[in-house]
Amino acid sequence: MSEGTKDKSIFIGNGVTFKGSISAPNQAIISGTVEGDLVAKDVLIGASGIVSGTTAAEFIDVKGELNESVTSKSVLIVRSTGKVTGDVTYGELEIERGGKIKGNMKQV
Fold first, then answer.
1. Which candidate, 8, 17, 29, 100, has a CA 20 to 30 Å from the CA of 23?
2. How many helices and strands in the chain, by DSSP H and E?
3. Prediction pTM value
4. Alpha helices (runs of H) in 1-108, residue ranges in sequence order
């Protein structure tokens, strides 16, 4: 990550719980728990990451859990350990074997 992107990204570490809204111009990397809205250019949810709330991004990569309302304008990837539940809107969708999606789905 270059110096120019460090200050425009957020990282929620394993064992950390954040309650509230997050807006990051670049990446949001979630290995802990977020309870609230999350808006970023790219959202990367690690295997231990859990997000409950409205999530919106260009690109979303899920190895953990993503719950409630999900909007990925470009690509949503659900990895083999990933679980997405709720209202899901996506441009393109990729699900690895073992990945789970449950809810209403809409392609844009």
1. 100
2. 1, 9
3. 0.92
4. 3-6
- Ranges of residues in the chain with a pLDDT under 70 are 1-6
Give pLDDT, residue 7.
73
DSSP assignment string, 69-82: EEEEEEEEEE-TT-
Side chain identity at residue 8, one-letter code:
K
CB 55 within 8 A of CB 70: yes
Ramachandran bin of 53, using left for φ above 0, alpha for ψ from -120 to 50, beta for the remaining angles: left
- Which tokens belong to 22? 């997050």
Q: Can you name the residues that pair with 86 across neighbouring β-strands?
A: 68, 103
Question: Within a 10 A sphere around the Cβ of 63, how many other Cβ atoms?
Answer: 22
Q: If we measure between CA atoms, which residue out of 30, 22, 24 comes closest to residue 6?
A: 24
The set of residues, in sequence order, having a beta carbon less than 8 Å from that of 9 and lying 6+ positions away, is: 1, 24, 26, 27, 28, 29, 40
User: Long-range CB contacts (< 8 A, 24+ apart) of 99-107?
Assistant: 99/62
Reading the block at residue 36, the tokens are 């609230």
